[in-house]
Amino acid sequence: MDLFEKLKGSGFAEEEIREKIRKKQEQFGGLLTEDGALRIVAREAGFTDEERIEELSIKKLKDARAGERVNVLVRVLQVFAPKGFEKNGRRGRVCNVLVRDESGEATLVLWNKDVDVAENGAVERNDVIEVKNAFVKSESPLELHTSLLTQLRVKLEGDYADIAREAKPPLKISDLIEGMMDVDVYGRVFDIREEKGFVTNKIKKSALGPEKKEGLVASCTLSDSTSQMRLVLWDKNAEIVRKLKTGDAVKVESGYVKLNPQTNMLELHVGWRGRVFANPRAHGLEEKEKMLAGMYEHLRISELKENENAVIEAVVTDVFGARLLRKCSKCGATVKPPAKIENAVVDEGEAGELQVLEEAKSLKGGGPKGAGLSGSRGGGSPSEGSVAPSCECGSTEIREIPMASAVVDDGSVLRCVFYGKQALDLLEVRDFAVDPETILQLKKEALLGKKLRMVVLPRRNPMTNELECVAKDIISTK
Description:
With 478 residues, this protein is mainly β. It has a five-stranded mixed barrel. Strands 8-9-10-12-11 form a five-stranded mixed barrel. Strands 15-20-21-23-22 form a five-stranded mixed barrel. The termini are far apart. It has eight helices and 23 strands. The radius of gyration is 29 Å and the shape is globular. The longest helix is centred in the first third of the chain and has 14 residues, at 14-27. Residues 363-372 and 374-378 have low confidence and may be disordered.
């Protein structure tokens, strides 16, 4: 007896069951099949068909037929970068995994919660996984989909020699050469840069018509016992830098090696065909402390040398100057904030002039909600306006970078400036969602007296000629 019949036999009318199924599908924004909705409705009513799922024997991929549910035992060949999407106002995640057994290959499509195993590294290349209750969407090409009732289990014990392994052993960084594709590498991350958005010339389709495609990019230094290399992360992979700390172990799967023409240095890139995740199993890397010791000198503030990176430990005695620094995305120049003019009268025409009434004149920094000077009309009553921020190079593509300053002390005193991710890590926030000074005032008391261990770059302040430093990486706080 199937679940539908069980529900009918327990007193539910057929139309009532179908209505419950329809509402359950609406609840999940159309992401749930009718069969999946029925299973949830039945479970809520106290019925399950778990016994039937468990009784299904392991099926070979070549025997899977479209429309049926199967249990399979497969080896992971490649995990592609997860993607986010929005459908009917609801957000979701999806990730494709290429798998094989002794009879053939298939694409396993992970949905929503199941994507966690790809993002957190629970499943690695060449792992054998048992997939229960997967839906066969198509046979050619063979495609299996997970649902809310699918069970995934990594089989860490046993060699499963009958399922061929993907011959892609991880490489050392020193082994990487220009043009290499689909490479796996273990390493520890340093000099982590926050992700930033960009707009490509590629056109994507949308309900509003063609639009330029937006993306994300982030980078860090990847290091192992043999060498180090810049690691460049694209789009969904770039988001991992929000969670990474200096010295964390990561694994890159399906990266590719490129030569940066500006620096003439090799870089390891991870795009949509690959992924990067933290804390991989059996990475075999040197301990973080040993690797740090090999990369940077551990010095006291009084021993710091200008323009030479070093690790220091010092106590925070003051925090100040939290703000957003505006930088031009095109040329990198610092951009001054826009100005606000209140109570102005604008005359248009060849001999027009801007009049600011003396009794209520105000010039303020910031981005006000005004009509804008371009929107003001001549001969009107006094109003306010604003000028959008722009760079002297003409670009209006301005990005905002979090910034904060602190005074640290280890017996000697040093002013330290924190930019981007380091400023967010110092203040222990994800972003400057509210006024930076407000965040600073809320966090200041907890920060004073904290011991910071960090990589710093000493430099001379051009105004005072005093030595100060830029925080490159916050290793730990106590």
